[in-house]
UniProtKB/TrEMBL annotation:
Keywords, sorted A to Z: Ubl conjugation pathway
Protein name, entry field: Ubiquitin carboxyl-terminal hydrolase 7 ICP0-binding domain-containing protein
Organism of this sequence: Solanum stoloniferum
Superkingdom, natural source: Eukaryota
GO MF term list: catalytic activity, acting on a protein
Ubiquitin carboxyl-terminal hydrolase 7 ICP0-binding domain: residues covered: 83-169
Length: 175
């Protein structure tokens, strides 16, 4: 009986410690094109991606956003200079869509501040879409001087009733 009580107390202490440490970190869920492709057409799911199934990174709140970019480079093999992040916005129907690209100013902020500014609905995590910017010659796709207000990212979901499958397409438009 003493063993059970002792084990129970140890579990409570561990949970308390994890909760205290959680205040120091930001959970960042990074969805990629591959996650969207995996999600669409395999299950009946209304949203573009199931955020519970995407890669999660745990970054200290005071660390700059560049820390996440470096970890993503290690995890996915995508060089930092080809990474471009979009903030997901929660819509009225409780689905998420990429809303806008992170600005250069936002990318120099600590991840904790970025999460608070960008995610008004769910403050325990930051949801991002990773766009990979590669041309055929492996140069960055977008000119450095171009502002994000000149670009629109469109997501199309196409349902094939004969095959009962859903496909998606991403289209980047420049105004």
């Amino acid at each position: 009986m003493d063993e059970i009580v002792k084990k129970d107390q140890e579990e409570k202490l561990q949970k308390g410690k994890e909760k205290a440490e959680a205040c120091l970190y930001t959970m960042i869920k990074v969805a990629r094109d591959e996650d969207l492709a995996e999600q669409i057409g395999k299950e009946i799911y209304f949203d573009l991606v199931d955020h519970d199934k995407v890669r999660t990174f745990c970054i200290e709140k005071q660390k700059p956003f560049t820390q996440l970019k470096e970890e993503v480079a290690k995890a996915f093999g995508i060089p930092v200079q080809f990474q471009r992040y979009w903030i997901w916005a929660k819509r009225q129907n409780h689905t998420y869509r990429p809303a806008r690209v992170l600005t250069a100013q936002e990318e120099i902020q600590p991840v904790g501040e970025l999460r608070e500014v960008s995610n008004k609905w769910n403050n325990d995590e930051l949801k991002l879409f990773l766009e990979v910017e590669l041309c055929l010659d492996l140069r960055p796709l977008h000119p450095a001087g171009k502002t994000t207000r000149e670009e629109i990212l469109l997501f199309f979901k196409l349902y094939d009733p004969l095959k009962e499958t859903i496909r998606y397409y991403i289209l980047l438009l420049n105004r």
